[in-house]
Amino acid sequence: MNMRPVSIIGVPTDIGASAIGARMGPEALRVAGIVEAIARYGCPVSDWGNVTGPLNPQRGPVDGFRHLDEVAAWNRTLHDAIFAELEKGSLPLMVGGDHCLAIGSISAVARHCRERGHKLRILWLDAHADFNTSAITPSGNIHGMPVACLCGHGPAELTGIGGRTPVISPADIRLIGIRSVDEGEKRFLLEQGVEVFDMRYIDEVGMRRTLEMALDGVDEDTHLHVSLDVDFLDPEIAPGVGTTVRGGPTYREAQLCMEMIADTGRLGSLDIMELNPALDHRNMTAELAVDLVESLFGKSTLLRLYQS
Length: 308
Ligand SMILES: [Mn+2]
Fold this sequence. Notes:
The chain contains ten helices and eight strands. By secondary structure, it is of the alpha/beta class. Helix 7 (183-192) links the parallel strand 5 (173-178) and strand 6 (195-198).
């Protein structure tokens, strides 16, 4: 179980999305009790408030990107904040905010791993592959591009944050829960050799086997980063997100996923992204996200004696 101090950093912006509202995500997660939920399982936890950045000008895309300068500014600030927490020995928990911000958080995590000689494994839990580029994106929304940017495909302002391009290799990441991929994106995922566990895979082999595969090779020298896009979850249980796609994991499947991640004891950093309170019902999606976070930090139904 994690005993590193957890540092919560809020990133209140929807700069990379076209639907606005994810800027309210950090406060909704706090209202739903995210700090208390982590503390309940014995982890020291501090809430460091929010980082700040440019306002959302709500302009259209320019050369295939919406708000590129503003997205870059937020991600640079975030990189510095997350990197500082990792250097202190903390487990940074970014509460967003739209998913373009994972460029900043994962750039910091990858730099930390590089400098410390740790292996890195990223689990990207999402309905979408987020592997678009300006050439293939239908929308120009950068929250559809973070995985491609991290793998070195994107504008220099985003691909080199943290001092090295590419930030990660496709071999470092596993995409899980995917059920909506754009046409050009499908081809690009295949060409780049990204490992994707889509919903069909989960339907056929189950969440347990999926997680065993996705975590294969994770050892005591691995830093595990989880980037949870709330749209990973089925919209029946998680309506508070701008880009719902039906047919996602159920409550039990999502809990099993989190419990299996917790069992590795390797969780080193976490993003909770895309919560949009303007689309939620009575904060139910934020409460669900907090429920899942509890499992990630050690809640289990029974005492499990094999856990240390
Ligand atoms: Mn996403």
